[in-house]
Structure formats: structure tokens, C-alpha cells
Amino acid sequence: MTDKKPLLGIINSDSEVDWYKYTVNSTNPFKIVLDNMSESDLRWRFSIYDNDGSTLLWDKNTDWSVASTASCNLMYEKGHELYIKINNCSSSENKIYQIKIIIDNSTGWAKEDNGSSEKAYKIDSTSDIKEFLGPNNDVDWYVYSAKKNEKIAFEFSNTESADGRWNLRFYEGNVDKVIDETNLDWNEFSYKYEINATRGTRYYICVSDCSSSYDKVYKLSVRDSVEHTSKDNVESGSDDGQGITSPYSILAGTNVVVGKADAGAKVSVKYGKKTYTATANSEGIYRVKTAKLKKGKSVTIWQTVNKQDSEKVTVKVVNKY
């Protein structure tokens, strides 16, 4: 298969297995995505193997839902071969799926040679970094040099709906002393660390796996001239809920919007002239199946709790995650 065109497949029996071969055509991060295309609840099993066909890199069962989907993020040199296996997990016999490759051609991705502090990737306040931890105990290092005496904030977030636990360590001046360390809890999708920076001082950030965070995309940003500690930007929600937020996934070519709202809330997604709905699960994660999303179009999202509609969040469809 190639990244030029999605493919449709069907599993005809409980024991049937579909195999695909993908040859990497550019040294860019890419995403392999499996989507359920059948109008019924079911689960697929989705596995990625390295070029020898036996080394398992990634293995997951999709959620039980009509909008079930699974994806993994990888990056290999051009010409590297991967094998994709799809088989039935539960009730997917005679059901249709879609498999596709999405290449990220955007700038701003961190390099994969930053496995030690000596090779830390330089970051600043002008751009956000999107990255993921690859297999084989990958570790990402970043370094920020303060331009003046001011309060700065490092902001880390999980950009996917899937749970993953990262370990974050922050260092000042060198990597001999940790000034802050945290393990993100399950269902914790963001972390902010603020510090009074000293001009000319280097601040190192180390991102590593705590549990199940490999192949999940995260975002790292640094904000300078921070005047005070601020809470996460929540659009609207119940008194004890987190409210509706910008979605994790709104990618051109897909037909599902994934994000987080209050647990049990009715989530509505307006795309074009139609409105699609779904209910957030007990963890607040929603998956709303829509028509095929096109780049540049707008999607408006809101939640309903106790018959009260929240404020609406409007986001444009993009061709990168």
C-alpha cells in the first residue's frame, strides 16, 4: 500500500487475517490509521510488524463502537518496509474497514537524534513541537535558553484520545539536578510547569515512557513572559466537569471527530449543514462519526448537560495531526 490512497478491506470470517506491506517513501513522521466503515459496533485487531515480518512494533484492539478507530505514529528512513496485520477481535466478520497512511509534511518536528542531553533539540516560544516516542525505549530531550529574566511556562499535552503515561523531567543549567519531575496519570492529558527563568540559563526537558505512551503523539510548547499561573482554557461545562475542549483529532480525509467533554455529556458536531451526535464515555472521551472531513472546512462542537448547551468550539479541519 502507499500513502496516496486509502484502501478498503473486509474480514470474511473469524479466522481470516489481512496483511499489507508498506514501504516508507520519505523520512517524515507518518501515521497508520484503521477506521471502522461499518454501521455497527465491533472491534478490530490492528498490528504493525518490522521488516522481518516477525518483530512486533505495535498491537492494539480498537474500542467497541461504530466509530471504532486505531492509529499509530512511526518514523523510519526512506525504503524501510513495514507489515500491517488486521484481523477480527469481536464481531467484525463480514464488516468493512479502511486502512490508510498519512504523511506529516509540516515543519517543526523534532529530530530523532536527540536520545541524549548532548543532542537535545532546541526549542523556543515561536513554535510548538509535535513528537512521539518510538519503539526500543526512545527518549526525547529538549533545551530552552532563556533570553531574559522572566517567568516561563512549559506546556505538555497528549494530542490523542488514547491513554498514555509519560515521564517528564525538567533541569536547570545542566542535567545533574532535577528541578521538577512528574508521571502523567491515566486520563491526564496535559501538564504545565512554570519557573522564574534567568537570562542565559539553559532549561532541559526530558520526555520518556512511563506506561503505554509509545507511538502516541504529544505536543510540547514553551511560553515566555508569563505573568501568572493560569488554568487550562475550558470553554464550558458542568460545575464539577471539565467542559467541552478543542478536539484531539480533526484530520482531513477522516470521518470521525475525537475529543474530551464531561463524562456522559451529549456531544454535537456540526459539519456543513448536518449535525452529528454521540455520548462521551465515563472518562469524558467522545468519538463522533461525521461525513468525510475536508481541509479548510469548519467543525463546530458543543456539549449538552442537564439540557443545557455549552458554548461552542469551532475548529478548522487540517491535513496534519
Q: How does the SSE layout of this entry go?
A:
Elements lengths: L6 E5 L5 E7 L6 E7 L6 E7 L6 E6 L7 E6 L6 E10 L4 E9 L17 E2 L6 E4 L7 E6 L4 E9 L6 E8 L5 E6 L6 E8 L4 E10 L5 E7 L32 E5 L5 E6 L2 E6 L5 E5 L8 E8 L2 E2 L3 E4 L5
Summarize the structure in words.
About 0% of the residues lie in helices and about 50% in strands. By secondary structure, the protein is mainly beta. It folds into 3 domains: about 5-105, Sandwich (Jelly Rolls); about 115-225, Jelly Rolls; about 235-320, Immunoglobulin-like. The protein has a 5-stranded mixed beta sheet with strand order 9-11-16-13-14, with no helix packed on it. Strands 19, 20, 22, 23 and 24 form a 5-stranded antiparallel beta sheet that branches. Strands 1-8-3-6 form a 4-stranded antiparallel beta sheet, with no helix packed on it. The two termini are about 20 Å apart.
